[in-house]
Amino acid sequence: MMLKKMLLGVSLLLLAACGSNKEKSQVVQITGSDTCLNVTQQLSEAYMGSNRDARIAVTGGGSGVGIAAAINGTTDIAMASRDAKESELKSAADAGNPLEEIVFGWDGLSVIVHPNNPVNALSKEVIGRIFSGEITNWREVGGADAPIILLSRDSSSGTHVYFKEAVVRGGVKKSAKEYADATLFLPSNSAIVQEAASNENAIGYVGMAYMDETVKALEVDGSAPTVENVSSKKYPIARELFWYAPAERSQVISNIIEFALSPEGQAIVAEEGFVPAK
Fold it and tell me: How many CB atoms lie within 10 A of CB 67?
């Protein structure tokens, strides 16, 4: 009897240890927005640096890809540069994967042109008319007599969706305006920067953390896309950055989220060129 009790005790200890090791060895998958990709990678690396047992894999693909993966349970955290639609949240709940929305930062979208472009500022309303194809020549807005080349993120991007709703449609929910047929849809912020840097007639938009000296950011409604102006809500094209995680999740996933919202995590968000949520 004593031997049986001892064996039972050892078995329970082994089961507990196996459960603990499984929790520690869990590879947390984070998928989605390319805008959120770099900052999420930095957050993940910092977290793993302080937690040697942690394993995190971060991949892009766009906000829509990330949210779809969260709905079907193939990712642990979805990165998104737009808020999830009611239909997406319902689909997740119906699939048994109800999602919690976590805002970890803010981003201002920089509207960019070639440095040689004489246009330095436009209104949000005019930018919307340019991207819808109503304005097609730079001379109509004070620039050279040249056709405007439109650069946009592709449709899987949350940035694409946000810009269409907030700028092309002017925030009017019933509007059916779309990007102009001639728009070039590109797969990443970096691709838009590269194209704008090489084409004097191009105009595009990118997350402000992806700006560099090869392109020029326009003032919008008299405000530049800076951390200060996004923080004060002065800059008119700004949006929240999201993580979507299972409402019922492992402690490992909860710990990663808590780190992202901690002072150390929020400092990383700021270092990457975004505005901290806290």
Answer: 28
Distance CA 91, CA 87 (A): 6
**3-state SS, residue 37:** helix
Question: Would you give the distance in Å from CA 237 to the centre of its chain?
Answer: 14
Residue recorded with tokens 């999602």: 99
> Which amino acid is located at 223 in the chain?
S
Domain count, the chain: 2
- What φ, ψ does residue 112 adopt, rounded to 5°? -120, 150
Rounded-to-integer distance, Cα 210 and Cα 47, Å: 23
Q: What digits encode the pLDDT tens for the residues 170-221?
A: 999 999 999 999 999 999 999 999 999 999 999 999 999 999 999 999 999 9
Which amino acid appears at position 261 of this protein? L
pLDDT tens by residue, 153-172: 999 999 999 999 999 999 99
Q: Are residues 253 and 219 in the same domain?
A: no
Maximum CA extent, the chain? 95
CATH of the domain at 57: 3.40.190.10
pTM, whole model, 2 decimals? 0.85
Contacts of 67 (CB under 8 A, 6+ apart): 32, 78, 80, 84, 88, 244
Q: Which residue from 108, 107, 99 is spatially nearest to 257, judged by alpha carbons? A: 99
Query: Do residues 118 and 213 share a domain?
Result: yes
Give which of 162, 177, 168, 160 is closest to 124, Cα–Cα.
Answer: 168
